[in-house]
Design a protein that fits this description.
Layout (H helix, E strand, L loop, with lengths): L1 H30 L5 E5 L6 H17 L3 E5 L6 H8 L7 E6 L5 H4 L10 E9 L2 E6 L7 H8 L5 E4 L5 H12 L6 E4 L5 H5 L5 E5 L4 H5 L3 E6 L14 H5 L6 E7 L4 H14 L3 H10 L2 E5 L1 H22 L1
Parallel strand pairs: 1-2, 1-3, 6-7, 6-8
Antiparallel strand pairs: 3-10, 4-10, 4-11, 5-8, 5-9
Helix pairs in contact: 1-10, 2-10, 6-12
Length: about 325
């Protein structure tokens, strides 16, 4: 009889704990956000991650009635902005909008003051249309043609920093094709002016940053770092087609480790809803960006995979 009573009490205690935990989780989700929310974009305004993060922030303000703003904090190849999130409270009041580098290659290269597990992904939402672009009068139209030209001429490259994954991929592609850039420089922004001013002859950037000179035919694309050919430039081959390098690039939302799952889930729900907006569809059509939603668990698996890929890539290009 005593054993039966003891068992019953344990069951009741477990049930009470479960109900209390559920109620607590529901309460956390209902109360969030209880203070203004900042989305940290570690780059200057205007590029794809900035535009889409602003759409998400606007949706959060509308849904919750609490101000949500985007703060652009460039510097250190994005590490400065990411460090701000790493040093924030784990309560969802500061959310990072990060490219793949900031949680992989920047950590692998020892350029980041935070650990591999400093962040938890809320979700991944963007397949970046990274490209290699040149002035329209450049004497080469494809990556193999650039390779041949660079064997007898000095060619300069503009990129987002040595620890940036697109930069490492670009150097890997050059190595595969048997050439080297004569010089290279890191920029916080790689737009039409970099090409027009001759600061670099080839730039590794996104279509969003160079839309004006693509529209005016002052620039052309050699290749794209995307899974499929860009819908905006279907005649431009992908890097995979030209070199066999298949790694693509993404951007996602991240919070500090320790943030309650209920808060992460609420942010994810708002973000996923925001990305259904008509202006997002238009952005895809004009830039070739791939906009989608990958949940927290699947995003974590991708981060872990790309962390290992980053270690291999950094080793290969050294």
């Amino acid at each position: 009889m005593k054993k039966q009573i003891s068992h019953t009490l344990k069951v009741l205690a477990a049930s009470t704990l479960l109900v209390t935990t559920f109620a607590s989780t529901a309460s956390i989700a209902a109360d969030y956000p209880n203070r203004p929310v900042k989305f940290i974009v570690p780059w200057p305004p205007g590029d794809l991650e900035d535009v889409l993060t602003r759409v998400i922030a606007e949706e959060m303000s509308k849904e919750t009635g609490v101000p949500a703003t985007v703060v652009n904090k460039p510097g250190g190849g994005g590490v400065l902005g990411a460090t701000t999130v790493a040093q924030s409270r784990p309560d969802g009041s500061v959310i990072g909008s990060f490219v793949v580098d900031l949680v992989t290659s920047q950590v692998v290269g020892g350029n980041a003051p935070y650990a591999e597990d400093a962040f938890v992904p809320v979700g991944i939402f963007l397949d970046y249309p990274f490209v290699l672009a040149v002035k329209s009068d450049a004497p080469y139209n494809t990556l193999p043609e650039l390779a041949e030209y660079a064997k007898t001429h000095d060619v300069s490259l503009g990129h987002f920093g040595y620890q940036a994954t697109p930069t490492a991929i670009t150097f890997q592609a050059a190595k595969k094709l048997g050439f080297k850039f004569a010089s290279d420089s890191a920029f916080d922004a790689l737009d039409c002016s970099v090409l027009a001013n001759g600061d670099a002859e080839v730039i590794n950037t996104t279509t969003q940053q160079i839309l004006p000179c693509l529209d005016s035919k002052d620039a052309k694309l050699l290749t794209s770092f995307t899974y499929k050919r860009l819908v905006t430039n279907p005649d431009v081959p992908t890097l995979n087609e030209e070199t066999g390098i298949s790694q693509t690039l993404w951007n996602g939302l991240f919070v500090k480790k320790g943030t309650p799952q209920a808060v992460i889930d609420k942010i994810a729900s708002i973000a996923e809803q925001a990305l259904q907006a008509p202006e997002v569809l238009k952005l895809q059509e004009t830039t070739g960006a791939g906009v989608y939603w990958t949940n927290s668990q699947d995003a974590q698996k991708l981060v872990e995979l790309d962390f290992e890929n980053a270690k291999k890539l950094m080793k290969e290009v050294k």
